Amino acid sequence: MRELVTLARPYANAVLQMAREADTLGEWSERLALLAAIVVDPALQSLIADPRVPRATLADLVIDVGGSAFDEGARNLVRVLTDNQRLALVPVVWRLYEEERARAQRRETVSVRTAYPLDPTIQDAITKAMRARLGCEVDLEMEVDASLIGGVVIRAGDRVLDASVKGRLGQLARALT
Length: 177
What we know:
Layout: H1 2-22, H2 25-39, H3 42-49, H4 55-66, H5 72-83, H6 90-104, E1 107-114, H7 120-134, E2 137-144, E3 151-156, E4 159-164, H8 165-176
Parallel strand pairs: 1-2
Antiparallel strand pairs: 1-3, 3-4
């Protein structure tokens, strides 16, 4: 995985720079999301892996599928990735782009897993607390996971707060062994 990140980072950085200069960070998020969805299609993956498929044909196919959602910059990106046999890296490029975009905009996505859906007032309280703790704007991603039994697991980057019943029971089991 580390090698994929190394290969994908220059493309993500180039797209980010281009998006900053044109003030189109959001639009590029959408373009890369669409391109990633196209590239992970199993039928297209078999074409990407087939050395007999001409690169120009592959690029044209991807561009046609993207249609009007791809501007000239996105079409050029598809051609460059195809020419360099890096089209399969698009999902990693997209993820890296989103991480860098969030840092540039001083935003962080916080994943919140709970056993039951949370009331909007509690979600707001979590957002405010995480904003204060992280020192940046926060986007919550809510997920209901009944296996937690109760409580909450909050993940922000590499930081994890596990206040779930399942997590506490796991800690107790480890302490008893």
